[in-house]
Design a protein that fits this description.
Layout lengths: L14 E5 L2 E8 L2 E8 L5 H4 L1 H4 L8 E7 L1 E5 L5 E5 L2 E5 L4 E5 L4 E7 L4 H4 L11
Length: 130
């Protein structure tokens, strides 16, 4: 990716953060945070974030748009979700996931913090709906 890649260019008014190897640019929009999250090649939640977060699985909901790359998600019930850009994401809490392939995954995410699940009417955990 070149330096002129608009998907990775600096965002006016954004707060830049790093969480392990993940790059986040965050802008507040009312009660929501709009985030550009860049997951690097080789990223896996259980390897890169679990030691920092201290939970067995990622307990945050993710809602947004996968603008670049591929992400593979796994749930304890054996369910697997694969996302390939361009694609909308709606991922319930209680998952492990990793970047697939040789390019970073870039996600534009809408985040209400601990209230993401309730504000967006999502299930509190993954279920097959049977």
């Amino acid at each position: 990716m070149s330096e002129t890649d608009v998907l990775l260019a600096p965002i006016k008014g954004a707060e830049h953060r790093e969480a392990g190897p993940v790059q986040l640019d965050i802008v507040r929009a009312g009660d929501c945070q709009v985030k550009r999250v860049v997951y690097p090649v080789g990223f896996r939640w259980s390897k890169d974030m679990k030691p920092q977060v201290g939970t067995e699985l990622c307990m945050h909901a993710h809602v947004g748009f996968l603008a670049r790359g591929q992400i593979h998600m796994e749930f304890p019930d054996g369910c697997i979700l694969d996302f390939r850009a361009p694609q909308v994401l709606c991922i319930e809490p209680g998952h492990d996931g990793f970047v697939v392939g040789d390019e970073p995954a870039v996600v534009i995410e809408f985040d209400f913090g601990a209230e993401t699940v309730s504000k967006l009417g999502m299930p509190e955990k993954h279920a097959h709906g049977d």
